[in-house]
Amino acid sequence: MPLPHFLLLILAVILAAGLTIWVASAVGIPLFVLGLLALLAAAVAHLGMRDDHRH
Questions:
Q1: What is the mean pLDDT of the chain?
Q2: What keywords tag this UniProt record (predicted)?
Q3: Which pTM was predicted?
Q4: Among 13, 22, 38, 50, which is least packed by CB within 10 angstroms?
Q5: Predicted confidence band at 53 (pLDDT cuts at 50, 70, 90)?
Q6: DSSP string covering 1-55, please?
Q7: Residues in contact with 2: Cβ distance below 8 Å, sequence separation at least 6, in sequence order
Q8: The pLDDT of residue 29 is above 90
Q9: What is the C-alpha to C-alpha distance for residues 41 and 35, in angstroms, rounded to an integer?
């Protein structure tokens, strides 16, 4: 991936995170709840990954 594309991707992620926090605070969602929702989403994404390794 070329460097300008990578930097634009990083910028887009930072802007999306800032927009999410701004909208959540404008609606009245506490940052603690937003953090818990982010952790829950990360756990669901982690557990939803296919694991083809047989242990």
A1: 92
A2: Membrane, Transmembrane, Transmembrane helix
A3: 0.69
A4: 50
A5: low
A6: --HHHHHHHHHHHHHHHHHHHHHHHHHT--HHHHHHHHHHHHHHHHHHS------
A7: none
A8: yes
A9: 10
**Per-residue tokens: 47:** 């557990």
Torsions phi, psi of 52, nearest 5?
A: -90, 5
> What pLDDT is stored for residue 54 in this prediction?
65
The answer on pLDDT for 55 being more than 70 is: no
Rounded Cα gap, residues 19 and 15, in angstroms: 6
**Average of per-residue pLDDT across 1-8:** 95
CA distance linking residue 51 with residue 23, whole number of Å: 35
